[in-house]
Fold:
Amino acid sequence: MKKKQTKFSMKQLETAKNTMIGNVWIGGIYGIGLGNNCVRVYITQENIRELIPQEVQGVPVEVILVPDNLEPSQKLLSS
Structure:
């Protein structure tokens, strides 16, 4: 049976993102932001993917692998 998808408010998404920022201290995380009804965690090392929680405060977490050689002006512009 498919799980019903919840539409989260911006406040819920921001709270979940801030919780993730405050609680996840793993080397190889490039950044944490918001996606389409989820928290996005940008990683530079594939091997840390399994260390990232699948959800935070009920909000799904999407993990995205990014090149580890991005210049600051290129940060996350392609996502």
Notes: The beta strands are 29-34, 39-43, 55-56, 59-65. The two ends are 30 Å apart (CA to CA).
